Amino acid sequence: MPPYGVTSSPTSMYSSILLALGLTVLGFAFLSFQHFLLRKTGLLAFMGATFVLFQGISGSLIVGAIGVLLWFGLPWIELLTRVRHLELPIDKPWRRRVPPQDDFPHLDSATSEIEELNEFQIVDDWGYEWRGTEHFFRLFYDPSSRTQAAVCMTRDDKVAQTYVKLVSRSQGGQVYTTWNYPFCASLKPSPDHRLHWDRSSESFAEIFANHAKFLRKEGIGEEAIAEQKPDEFLHRLKDDQRRLVDLNMALGVLKASGEGLCRYSWRGLIFLWTQLVKEIVRIH
Question: Global pTM?
């Protein structure tokens, strides 16, 4: 007898399959939207479809719950087959870049949107390539708010992702970043670096306004924000990333794998998995 006295008949099983198919279609529909909460609803619809399918076929609520839990094990497939063997440069090979218009067709419109706000002006285009991945950053600066902005693109063989990042630095050396990066953090942040994800804004002006709210929430007034020198942006970027790598190597998230290279340790893979689980259950 199925657990808790739950029984399964052919009729109820077919009904469960049809309901699971309906939830799956609903999930794909929600994933077609760009809004974070709608996409999250799509993921919940997939989980609901899994529960209904497993429960309907087995007649057991426990088996249905196990089906949902399988979603939390899926990241290990990617972690063990690809990420575990991935080698990363300790120092990124930065260089000036020609804008990748084919992969980033909206770069000009994004640039115009940023330049229309306050006193933002282009500083330079930088990026690097590493073993099939391409990273591009167009940097801006607004002297009136002492805020650095960047339009960023990351591309590999499968997909290209774009996002916007705003950076303010305090007089005491703290770094405050607001961005709409679509994934969870892949490394543990430095104690002097505060990250704020903005998943709901639909324009650069909204992200900029939310960055100002983030600074106020952190107790950082205008007088506490340090002026930034555009000609030092690349140096600051390299320094921030090197300190981040050094911190994660010291914490055991990364380990050396060759001259100038590092990779994720087992502790690092577990950290990535917990980050992905947080991303699945996060609702804001």
Answer: 0.79
